[in-house]
């Protein structure tokens, strides 16, 4: 494998989406994680290799063998509730991986996907110049990882993304994004309780992947921190209503509730990101980031109601 290859660390929703986008563009892509992704790597054009990214020796061996020209870090536990219950483990996992790759390939373009949880939720929209104040243990872990990477790898970029959504199959068991969770429940005729006081700027997985790919390719100087959010600022309840409309589900199944009554209680009230920089970066600024209605229309055909039980 040549220096034109890309290594994607993490095989969850975002990691596999980025790998799929990069593979479509024609470059060799390797996806690594402790366990294989849900879909076989051939389904999105990348190959998969086992890696414990918290093991520096394992990382050194893999980097020596693959010699990637670019690295995307989408690593570490992202379940906010789990991180609240295991703050030390969450911090160690996120920071260790960032430190390891910064030390082993400091001269490569490294893009680390980060989160809106590094903010406290007081501002209606958070830009790159908004002071950070992590809302929870996940945000604190990610912020520490950001700082560890940027301190040692001068070509690295932290891309903070807002709530990412895309398709996940019904048999995935635990869905990693709000859209998929809502869609599968609504198509089963089940109610969806969604906060009416939790504001987000959802961003479609395909758009995150396209922006990441463009950042990897560009020869223009890049700032150390960039934000990527969708153009629509909506509550989760409003967004769930859009999803129901796109799927043709009864609107009464969406039940607005206070954030404090849901699993989103520890999230920042305003988990909204906007960028002062990204629109002015060629060619990234020419990428259209779709709003929630366009995203829902695009994804609706990928979600289908479960078949009725056999008679």
From TrEMBL:
Q: Which Pfam families match?
A: RmlD_sub_bind
InterPro entries, alphabetized: NAD(P)-bd_dom_sf, RmlD-like-bd
- Residue ranges constituting the RmlD-like substrate binding domain according to the UniProt record: 10-276
State the PANTHER family in the record.
Answer: NAD(P)-BINDING ROSSMANN-FOLD SUPERFAMILY PROTEIN
* Protein name per the record: Sugar nucleotide-binding protein
């Amino acid at each position: 494998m040549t220096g034109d290859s890309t290594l994607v660390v993490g095989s969850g929703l975002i990691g596999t989406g980025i790998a799929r986008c990069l593979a479509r563009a024609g470059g060799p892509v390797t996806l690594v994680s402790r366990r294989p992704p849900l879909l076989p790597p051939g389904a999105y054009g990348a190959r998969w290799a086992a890696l414990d990214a918290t093991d520096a020796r394992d990382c050194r061996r893999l980097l020596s063998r693959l010699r990637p020209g670019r690295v995307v870090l989408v690593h570490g536990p992202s379940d906010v509730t789990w991180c609240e219950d295991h703050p030390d483990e969450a911090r160690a996992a996120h920071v260790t991986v960032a430190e390891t790759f910064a030390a082993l390939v400091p001269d490569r373009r490294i893009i680390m996907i980060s989160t809106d949880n590094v903010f406290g939720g007081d501002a209606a929209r958070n830009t790159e110049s908004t002071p950070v104040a992590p809302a929870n243990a996940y945000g604190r872990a990610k912020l520490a990882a950001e700082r560890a990477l940027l301190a040692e790898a001068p070509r690295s970029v932290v891309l903070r993304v807002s709530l990412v959504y895309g398709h996940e199959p019904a048999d995935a068991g635990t869905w990693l994004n709000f859209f998929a969770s809502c869609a599968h429940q609504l198509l089963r005729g089940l109610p969806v309780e969604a906060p009416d006081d939790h504001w987000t700027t959802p961003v479609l997985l395909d758009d995150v992947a396209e922006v990441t790919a463009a950042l990897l390719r560009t020869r223009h100087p890049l700032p150390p921190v960039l934000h990527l959010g969708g153009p629509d600022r909506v509550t989760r309840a409003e967004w769930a209503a859009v999803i129901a409309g796109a799927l043709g589900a009864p609107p009464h199944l969406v039940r607005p509730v206070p954030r404090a009554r849901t699993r989103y209680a520890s999230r920042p009230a305003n988990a909204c990101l906007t960028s002062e920089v990204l629109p002015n970066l060629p060619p990234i600024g020419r990428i259209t980031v779709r709003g929630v209605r366009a995203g829902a229309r695009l994804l609706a055909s990928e979600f289908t109601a479960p078949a009725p039980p056999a008679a």
